[in-house]
């Protein structure tokens, strides 16, 4: 009798998980992003100049209320909209672990400085 109850409970749990997956799939149709996530749509690199690579990327984000598309740890992410409005770019932690972040003088972007001295500059357009 105990075994039968356990089997029914297991079958009920499996059915419940299956229904949750089906309902989730209905709400997140193909091509839709979950709230608070981003994906890279295009990425172009130009290495035509010596010792310099220009990279341009376009991201698609589904941000929550009060957030806007930004960059965290060198990846697209949803960040607090206040950071973008005030151009305090380093508050969104755009650089990789171990890199230093500095605002450009005109606040049009930021630089990430690696421990070896290599500098990556990002401008916002």
3D structure, described in words:
- The protein is α+β, with helices and mostly antiparallel strands.
- It is built from 2 helices and 7 strands; from the N terminus they run H-E-E-E-E-H-E-E-E.
- It has helices at about 1-25, 80-85; strands spanning about 35-45, 55-60, 65-70, 75-80, 100-105, 110-115, 120-125.
- The chain has a 3-stranded antiparallel β-sheet with strand order 5-6-7, with no helix packed on it. It has a two-stranded antiparallel ribbon with strand order 1-2.
- A hairpin with a 5-residue loop joins strand 5 (about 100-105) and strand 6.
- It is globular.
- The termini are far apart.
Return the average pLDDT rounded to an integer: 79
Unreliable stretches covering 5 or more consecutive residues:
9-24
- Series of secondary-structure elements, N-terminal to C-terminal: HEEEEHEEE
Major sheet attributes: 3 strands, antiparallel
Question: What percentage of residues falls in helices of 4 or more residues?
Answer: 25-40%
Total helices: the number is 2
DSSP strand count: 7
* Rg, alpha carbons: 22 Å
Strand order of the largest sheet: 5-6-7
Distance between the termini: 69 Å
Shape: globular
β-sheet strand percentage: 35-45%
- The SS-based structural class is alpha+beta
Keywords:
single chain, 125 residues, alpha+beta, 3-stranded antiparallel β-sheet, two-stranded antiparallel ribbon, 7 strands, 26% helix, globular
Summarize this structure briefly.
The chain is α+β, with helices and mostly antiparallel strands. It contains two helices and seven strands.
């Amino acid at each position: 009798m105990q075994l039968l109850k356990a089997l029914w409970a297991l079958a009920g749990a499996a059915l419940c998980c299956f229904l949750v997956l089906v309902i989730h799939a209905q709400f997140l149709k193909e091509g839709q992003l979950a709230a608070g996530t981003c994906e890279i749509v295009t990425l172009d690199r130009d290495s035509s100049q010596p010792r310099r690579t220009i990279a341009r990327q376009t991201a698609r984000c589904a941000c929550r209320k009060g957030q806007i598309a930004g960059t965290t740890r060198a990846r697209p992410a949803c960040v607090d909209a206040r950071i973008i409005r005030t151009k305090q770019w380093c508050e969104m932690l755009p650089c990789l672990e171990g890199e230093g972040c500095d605002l450009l003088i005109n606040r049009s972007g930021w630089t990430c400085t690696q421990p070896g001295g290599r500098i990556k500059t990002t401008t916002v357009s």
